């Protein structure tokens, strides 16, 4: 760790949540603060005319400018961020090409930023105070009323003054009063999250001879005696609990406090929203031979206490989660901590339940659906070392564990591990970087690993572990592919094939459960006029509006714009409007029509917006309160329902035709994962895949659960087209409010990049790669901003990053104002939209 005393200046990142600047600034470290300032310390600094919070991210002996201001004060007793967090922010800044303050947004604890409160205080001198009436008389009426109000109250929050004098030009009045020396306006800072306290009652330890007092109280005040008796037997209690047990009121307790028998203390509390504190009596299952071999390799690597990456490739239902739990148990025995990442928030409750049942209250949970207070409480638990295991979605990779031994990334192939809004990052990249720092192990798990990860495993860069069979020798589900073209030819216009309808009846008669999967949301894709062909489109984005039948709305899923479903065509006035496409609402309605006596649940983005809704739906289904669950991607992976015997895939080939080189890989992964939800209990499973392209190799490989067959065919295609894993990609998106300006900027940027590529190739002999574009982005307009993009394909990401730095340093990349040009950089993009 660097010693502050050796340096005169600190590099400070202004609180990134204020969004004032992306730069860091140098401030002088006053002698009185040298012992208090470390990397990660939160400090108060002058910034223009303001006093703002910032974070120390570095030191210097020589500042970049001549005039340097002093740090004003240190906010916290101990640094908010540790040295590893600051180093990680610098690595993210360098790797993903954005400023350090942007990276800090991922690392600053939730709810930490203090709220600014402006307070107005009366400041009358003795001389003016004696002549207050004369002072009020010489002021204008508004100033007089404000000053009179302050005379009564003394100190008032500005927001209260605004409510008191809403129609007045208050700011001008306050400025005048301040210039006259009559008031003072200052900024105070309070914690954003107020600390919660509970009142706890306990016996006064200084009291002696309590038994004799109890005998006297029994005669004079039996209620007071009962309170003391309860505290003697049970020890300190929450005030409300004590009142309930004693069957009395607060006046009884108050009398005992006044007599000195008991004391009432305020104790800070942190709510345990998990409501699970102890490990249950669940016994570990017996491992298969494959699980034993995999676990033995992981345990041996953990014992080495050195950085390594393992890929656990196991078919669906092969027991990967049990291997995770055993590996975490080993980490805890070594006195270290573990982080477990899941791709979907919907998977978190199931994973938490499995881990807590075995490990108890040492488990913490972090994801975006928790309230700010819940996230803050969990972060503090982890920071204090009270939780040794952290489970959560991608942001949990930043948790402040101090002695990391293991990071598990379940379903490592999932694109949800990548954050596509600033600050952009991939949780797998960050996990590997953190593991390097700690000398920890990264365990990637999947039934359908990404081609990049599996290729690294085959090349020996990752250690490959295999679970080729399901636990208890359960068979993989039998899969049937249905050609929907033949269904139409036979006169079946339903969204369900005859095969799927028949199997649904059969499984329902046996009281089994069914999953119906659709890779869409909404009721139907769009509304179209059957007279003129008009389609309602978002005025701000270049996409059609999605029809939501229940709400009677057309909605844009990119910017949130919505409008009522029109009665007539906005273009020609025709009343012949029809919805096209299939959505989860429509599937749900069709199921209810076919099976009116069966309970149906739907799980998609629209039904899971409310806090706790994920868990409610999954719990209801697991408890058998519904026979059929209709859903999108969130039901396709990781979930374990022993009673599900049939899975129906409504439209298997929708994603095949998206403009993305990963389309076939995503289709294979999704179909394999959703098929794997069937037959995980004591009876065999069946899967029906409906498609208009039954011979597609991705669909055929998924129906056979044959990852190696898919890998061989897809890796050959990637090699021939030089796409990852045989190259690395970067994407620049140029956006702005004026289309002509965007096109011109994209063309100029592409020219600059092409010239730089030629220079590096000819002068520096560096094989940078090739430039693709510029071209309109697949979604060419979003939120009223036109979008073009440029792709760079090269052999090494480091070379691409150097190219982008060289080019973009000469560009002024502005904030995305209405008419500004904004350039965003995406490294290793997962989607190209």
From TrEMBL:
GO terms for molecular function: 3'-5' DNA helicase activity; ATP binding; ATP hydrolysis activity; DNA binding; zinc ion binding. PROSITE patterns: HELICASE_ATP_BIND_1, HELICASE_CTER. Its cofactor is Zn(2+). It is an enzyme of class 5 (isomerase). InterPro entries: DEAD/DEAH_box_helicase_dom (IPR011545), Helicase_ATP-bd (IPR014001), Helicase_C-like (IPR001650), P-loop_NTPase (IPR027417), PriA (IPR005259), PriA_3primeBD (IPR041222), PriA_3primeBD_sf (IPR042115), PriA_C (IPR041236). It holds the Pfam family Helicase_C. NCBIfam families: priA, PRK05580.1-3. Belongs to the helicase family. PriA subfamily. This is Replication restart protein PriA. It comes from Calderihabitans maritimus. The lineage of its organism: Bacteria, Bacillati, Bacillota, Clostridia, Neomoorellales.
